[in-house]
Each structure stands twice: as C-alpha cells, then as structure tokens.
C-alpha cells in the first residue's frame, strides 16, 4: 500500500518486509548463539566425563584396601542407566507406553540382547584393562575401537571409507603400537601388573565395542523407535545379563563379602560416570558433530596424560608422546 505523508509516498509493504527481515535476523542470531552454547556445553561435558571416568576407574582399581568386584560395578551401572532411561520414556509416553515398548515387542528385546551381551563383556574387560594399564596408555590404546568400528561398518553396513580415512586408520594403529612399546617391562615388574594382558583386554573390548555399536546402529536404522526407547529395551536385557555375570564370575565372593564389598566414594563415582556416558553420547549426538566429538577425544587424551603424571607418577616417554600425537592426528 502507499500512504502519503507531507507529500512523500511511503511504501508500507517495503517497511513491513524490512521489519520482518530484521526480526528474523535477530531470531536467527539468537538461535545460533544458543546452539553454540549447547555445542560448547556438549564438548565440555564429554571431555569431563571421559577424563573423570578413566581417572576414577584407575584409582579405584589400584587403591589400597579391599578391591570391589568389577562385575557388581557393571551391574550397578546398568541398573542406574536403565532407571534414567525409564524415567525419560515414562515422561514421553506414560507408563502404558513404557509397557508397550518393553513387553509388547519381545522380538526387539531378543535382537537387542546381542549388543547387551557384548556391552556387558566390554565393560568387564575395561575394568580388567585399567587394572593392568596406566590411565594414559589405556585411553590412547582404546582409540583402536575406531578401527574396529570402521571395519564392522564396511562389512555390516556396506559403508564406503575413502583412502584418506584408511590412511588415518593406519596412522591410528601405528600410534597405538608406539604407545604400547613405550610401556616399560620394569613398570609391570615393580607393580605386579600385566600390561600385555591389559592391552589384550583393550583389543577385545574394542572389538566388542565396534561390533555392538554398528549392530545397534543397524537396528536403529530399521526401526522408528526413539533412542531412549531402544535404550530401555536394551537396558532390560543388559541388567539381566550383568546380574548373571555377577553370579557366574563372582558368586562366591559376593555371597561371602556382600554385593557392595569394597565400594567407596570413588567406586560410586565410577558407576555414576559410566551411567552418565550413555546420556552424554545422546546429548552430544543431538547438539554436536563428528568433528567436535573427535576434538573432545583428543582433549581427553591430553587431560588424562597430564593428570596421570601427577596422580600415578606416569613416565611420559618420547615414544609415548609421539604415539599419542599420531593417534590424536588420526582422530
């Protein structure tokens, strides 16, 4: 429309368009600022969770005094994680929706029992690995799971991996090998640890992590269920298998000493940070990208290495530093 004011023609439509554009621009900037804050929070949360979990787990496995049974810690973590996921699904769907999600789909529970079993084995292996490896060496070595995940993605999902990524995986493998060579035999003799067996546990955990992660991704692709509903379905079988693991692995000790034998504040912190890991992954997946997750992993390696020097008197050799740098560059 045109409106005359003191002899001048004013285009009301043009004015309205400029106002709308200014409003949309301000809203877009506010939304981008909010997303940036969320990405920063996701990065910080992931770094803190990764670092705190590894450090606390290493302390809990090497501290003086009675050592807790790792199978009970895995079971406690699975129960805590399931409770959190149950609360979220109940809030989204109600109790009736929860029952339909869990009891109404028995075949889904059966399919998800495969990654549940592998995750239970993986968590027990990681406790054993951190009982025999320095925290820094463990964190760098465990990045070999990137290689196993890539291999299973190629075979199970027919995913294409470029030559550049294959080269990065080769650099990753070389870096992990250098870190393992830096682990002195005199260290194991002085502490009674078995670094070779610890590294074998890391390799086995990486294999189970890669397969279960790709398997779970394939299940998610073929279903319309939300991530939280899948976590509830998998949590039911995970808790069952974790309790079965306690019975088969540490039955006599648990019956003699009790389920929470050896639990301290540090042990409960390990249980909490492990359970938090699933929530952190969901949060990071929603608000961050792959580059940010890789950046967080690299920061975690640096943080754990620095903290290990002061807490565990870890010797950072030139070979370890070179291997860690290669791993971070490959990530």
Notes on the structure:
The protein has helices at 12-62, 70-103, 106-132, 135-141, 145-157, 163-181, 185-191, 195-221, 227-257, 265-287, 290-311, 318-330, and strands at residues 2-5, 8-11. The protein starts with a strand and ends with a helix. It has a two-stranded antiparallel sheet with strand order 1-2. The protein has 331 residues and is an all-alpha fold.
Key traits:
single chain, 331 residues, mainly alpha, 2% strand, disordered N terminus
Summarize the structure in short.
The chain is globular, with a radius of gyration of 25 Å. It contains twelve helices and two strands.
Describe how the helices and strands are arranged:
Layout: E1 2-5, E2 8-11, H1 12-62, H2 70-103, H3 106-132, H4 135-141, H5 145-157, H6 163-181, H7 185-191, H8 195-221, H9 227-257, H10 265-287, H11 290-311, H12 318-330
Antiparallel strand pairs: 1-2
Helix pairs in contact: 1-10, 1-11, 2-3, 2-9, 2-10, 3-8, 3-9, 4-11, 5-8, 6-12, 11-12
Largest sheet: 2 strands, antiparallel
- In terms of quaternary structure, the protein is single chain
Strand order of the largest sheet: 1-2
Q: Helicity level, as a percent range?
A: over 70%
Structural class: mainly alpha
Gyration radius (Cα, Å) is 25 Å
H and E string: EEHHHHHHHHHHHH
